[in-house]
Design goal:
This protein has about 375 residues and is of the alpha+beta class. It contains 13 helices and eleven strands. The strands form three sheets. It has a five-stranded mixed β-sheet. It has a four-stranded mixed β-sheet with strand order 2-1-4-7.
């Protein structure tokens, strides 16, 4: 998607924030809450639900690819579904244990702050991990993985920033993709922090009006397109600060088993919406390194959940393993040394092959949340 089109979509979405048409007519008790998304509205069939596992069934009746979010205080992402193409239905199951006021949001064009509406959660509920030892083990296992990734991310970010500040363009370029893989593996966790995620990873094409271009992609542009700028060093310093803050906040985050399930799927959505199109690394074209990291992060979440999934639906585990292997085979074919070919070196047929493999993997991954929620 062109920068002009993305910016236009972002402005349109911002202008539509007040247009959210949330209807209070409830679905069947305990059943999914229907979300009807169009280019100009986000109709939610019930605006109240009891604490616990809440299921949203999203239907995109618009002409643009959309996303759906449930936000908590401070725009913390409680749950999200991305890459909902026109005419498609997607389901989101999210665990909300605390009563209070939340917000639903549809994002036509996948940009801007979204068409929002108030959503109230009543009462309180015990966390699923409190009642199920295997789910508790899964979240502890994944928390250890996140801790290892954020620690390495901070270390590599300091090396990247040092190269930028020293004017070592070749060194910074070599460090760029090596550093970003740690972020891409844990992106669903990073996305829960609405201030840090865009500061670290916003793309120039997705900048909202008035927002300063910071983070990795600003430095990517400096290194590959414009040359280092007078403020490149300060941008690098801020990146290190933001990455360090991300690690601290992630360490204090209490994830649910549904967070793991939804995160595994959202990482594949990242591939489908960014890496497949080549829009993620628009200047360096190192998209395949990000692609691999998204796959690695998705695998890590599934691996933590494996004992539960194997007990409840062994056939699903077999299907997921097979589809992961298919995607990995395609990635391995594009390796060159310890990295990957540039994304621009792929043929159209190779891109189509990747897209088909990602779609095939997304299908069984979309079932994981329902199995976990049983």
């Amino acid at each position: 998607m062109s920068t002009a089109l993305r910016t236009g979509v972002a402005v349109t979405a911002l202008a539509l924030v007040a247009a959210c048409d949330a209807q209070p007519s409830a679905d069947a008790p305990g059943g999914p809450i229907t979300v009807t998304a169009t280019d100009t509205a986000c109709q939610v069939s019930a605006t109240t639900a009891p604490a616990g596992n809440i299921t949203f069934q999203i239907v995109n009746q618009g002409t643009k690819v959309t996303e759906f979010y449930l936000y908590g205080e401070g725009d913390r992402i409680m749950g999200e579904v991305e890459n909902i193409a026109p005419g498609l239905n997607r389901r989101l199951i999210v665990e909300v244990t605390g009563g209070g006021t939340y917000q639903t949001a549809c994002k036509p064009g996948m940009a801007g702050t979204g068409i929002r509406g108030t959503f109230t959660v009543t009462g309180g509920a015990a966390k699923g991990t409190d009642a199920n030892a295997e789910l508790a083990d899964a979240t502890r296992s994944y928390a250890r993985y996140i801790g290892s990734q954020t620690g390495a991310f901070a270390d590599e970010s300091k090396k990247f920033a040092a190269a930028v500040k020293a004017g070592d363009v070749a060194g910074a370029k070599a460090q760029y993709a090596r550093t970003r893989v740690y972020y891409e593996r844990i992106e669903p966790v990073a996305a829960k922090f609405g201030d840090l995620d865009p500061a670290i990873d916003v793309r120039e094409a997705d900048l909202e009006p008035g927002r300063k271009f910071t983070g990795f992609h600003r430095l990517e542009k400096d290194l590959w397109v414009t040359g280092l700028q007078p403020d490149s060093g300060s941008v690098a310093d801020r990146l290190v600060t933001d990455v360090t803050s991300l690690g601290q906040k992630a360490a204090a985050l209490h994830l649910s088993a549904l967070d793991l399930a939804n995160g595994a799927k959202s990482l594949l959505d990242e591939v489908a919406t960014g890496k497949i199109t080549g829009e993620e690394e628009a200047f360096s074209h190192t998209d395949l390194s990000d692609f691999q990291a998204n796959v690695d992060g998705s695998k890590a979440a599934i691996q933590s959940l494996r004992p539960v999934l194997a007990q409840r639906d062994r056939a699903l585990v077999t299907a997921i393993d097979s589809r992961f292997a298919d995607v990995q085979k395609l990635l391995d074919a594009q390796r060159t040394g310890d990295t990957f070919k540039l994304y621009t070196d792929l043929s159209k047929d190779q891109v189509k092959e990747f897209a088909a493999a990602v779609d095939a993997l997304s299908e069984p991954l979309s079932k994981v949340a329902e199995v976990v929620a049983k």
